[in-house]
Amino acid sequence: LRAMQSRLVAASSDAAIRAVVATLHDLGYRITKVEPGAGTVSATRQTALRLAVVVQPRGNEQSIVRANATIVTAALESQVDSPEFYLTNFFVPLGATLHREPLAVPQEVSAPEPVRPTPELTVQQQRAAAARQAAPTALPTGVPSR
Fold this sequence. Notes:
single chain, alpha+beta, 6 strands
């Protein structure tokens, strides 16, 4: 799982995160959460496919990128465990964005732990809660204001 989900890219962690966001956007994903400090990006496509990516710096000009895809149905969430999926549907397009081919991570290098994708519904709920907190509270009808 680690080998199929991880690649070494010749880019700083900031450049790698920007490339991940651009790649996911180009692939039709809706970006649901980006945490540059943690090096994570979550995205959703067609509401059933979720992808979370973690970027870990390795020196100044290299980063390890690990993608974790899940498919969510009405009653089940399943991990994508197809090497072809990760290669074809993420790492090849990421390499095109970076203009560099992502390389296999050497065995002696530890890849970051995979993260779970943030579901889009959670993000929508967070935005709605933030909007409610920001909205001024109205007085009930018939109550005089002071």
